[in-house]
Amino acid sequence: MKYTCLNPIASVGLDQFTEGYEKTEKMEDADAVLVRSAAMHDLELPDGLYAVARAGAGVNNIPLDKCAEKGIVVFNTPGANANGVKELVIAGMLLASRDIIGGVEWAKSEAGSEDIAKKAEKEKKKFAGCELMGKKLGIIGLGAIGIQVANVAECLGMDVYGYDPYISVDAAWKLSKGVKHIKDVDDIYRTCDYITIHVPLLDSTRKMINQDAIDLMKENVVILNFARDMLVDEEAVVKALKEGKVKKYVCDFPNTTTAGVENAIIIPHLGASTAESEDNCAKMAVQELMEYLEKGNIINSVNYPNCSLGECTHANRIAINHRNVKNMLGQFTDIFATSDINIANMVNKSKGDYAYSLFDLDSVASEEVLDKIRAVEGVLRVRVIK
Ligand SMILES: NC(=O)C1=CN([C@@H]2O[C@H](COP(=O)(O)OP(=O)(O)OC[C@H]3O[C@@H](n4cnc5c(N)ncnc54)[C@H](O)[C@@H]3O)[C@@H](O)[C@H]2O)C=CC1
Ligand SMILES: O=C(O)C(=O)COP(=O)(O)O
């Protein structure tokens, strides 16, 4: 099996690949791709590619449907970099609250000045700020990152408001009881001193924080965006920064709209750039790929359902990527039955427009049988796992 890396991937992850795996620089030779933020939308997807693993959370750089259509399963690594982002969000709140950056620059500019200590006591009032304790923090999106930000902000004495209409049961269990459950996002905009967004970039979330949202916000609000720049109408934010309505805009995604704007604190996408997050993501991504390539089991896919049959202890395992339409299973089982093959174990799962079936068989399906399955309308890929 060959894999290629479209971004540098931590070696502790790649070291998990066992003997049968080999790294290639050529995407066209790869069975699997590992990627972080590299844009894949315009890349040609080779016919031999089985899987893409995003060592990270956001998958807006990957053509999910195009991959699904070719039977390519795309994985991400949920939560593996959440702590790294959480810590930077807290740093962002602190940077927005006190002029730490201005103060550090001042001290640098006074390097070599004999009376720097005396001057500092005189100048420091310029860089004074406020504390986080007692302030209202609104969190939009209570997933892996949003929850961690909520819980730590509560420990810092903030009054935390959370909004996520799609919160998972697991996430809700992890959320501190003190976090106020907000059902209408406008209440976050109206109430909070700090607003942080932690949702995926989707058509439904693009420019979610827009002029209308800013109009509802309090004077001097701080907006933090460590999710994706396109979630925010940044032209509206820059206008609000200039008018003084928004105190600071802290964003982890530099672009020409915000870089250099006064009171915009722009960070070069450092949220997940810690040794720990990079290692966690790489390890999880490689494990997901090996599980899929070797056993056909899908864990943490974003374009196919999660689906697992454990280890194959039978003669043959067949994996079928297919459309989520009626009677696919009926047609597959029919083909096995008429070919005199007993199904020892099977599972079929769906997610949106796509589905996946795994069959463990008591005898080996011939090429002829596999071709019959390939010919079923709606089948996108058939793979012999064992
Ligand atoms: N700055 C960085 O380096 C990093 C940025 N990210 C970004 O942060 C995003 C979130 O990451 P995670 O928390 O790990 O993902 P996650 O999938 O665990 O959480 C996302 C949450 O957003 C919620 N959500 C979806 N649509 C929503 C809506 N319209 N309103 C409110 N909530 C909504 C979901 O229900 C889910 O709970 C990623 O999609 C990625 O774009 C993630 C990791 C690193
Ligand atoms: O995981 C994410 O969504 C991120 O934004 C992190 O991106 P990176 O892996 O640092 O290029």
From TrEMBL:
ACT domain location: 317-386
Catalytic activity: (2R)-3-phosphoglycerate + NAD(+) = 3-phosphooxypyruvate + NADH + H(+); (R)-2-hydroxyglutarate + NAD(+) = 2-oxoglutarate + NADH + H(+)
Pathway info: Amino-acid biosynthesis; L-serine biosynthesis; L-serine from 3-phospho-D-glycerate: step 1/3
PROSITE patterns membership: ACT (PS51671), D_2_HYDROXYACID_DH_1 (PS00065)
CDD domains per record: ACT_3PGDH (cd04901), PGDH_like_3 (cd12174)
SUPFAM superfamilies associated with the record: ACT-like, Formate/glycerate dehydrogenase catalytic domain-like, NAD(P)-binding Rossmann-fold domains
Keyword Oxidoreductase (UniProt): yes
Keyword NAD (UniProt): yes
Domain of life: Bacteria
GO MF annotation terms: NAD binding; phosphoglycerate dehydrogenase activity
Keywords, ordered alphabetically: NAD, Oxidoreductase
Enzyme class name: oxidoreductase
InterPro entries: ACT-like_dom_sf, ACT_dom, D-isomer_2_OHA_DH_cat_dom, D-isomer_DH_CS1, D-isomer_DH_NAD-bd, NAD(P)-bd_dom_sf
EC number(s) recorded for this UniProt protein: 1.1.1.399, 1.1.1.95
Free-text function comment from the UniProt entry: Catalyzes the reversible oxidation of 3-phospho-D-glycerate to 3-phosphonooxypyruvate, the first step of the phosphorylated L-serine biosynthesis pathway. Also catalyzes the reversible oxidation of 2-hydroxyglutarate to 2-oxoglutarate.
Family of this protein: Belongs to the D-isomer specific 2-hydroxyacid dehydrogenase family.
Protein name: D-3-phosphoglycerate dehydrogenase
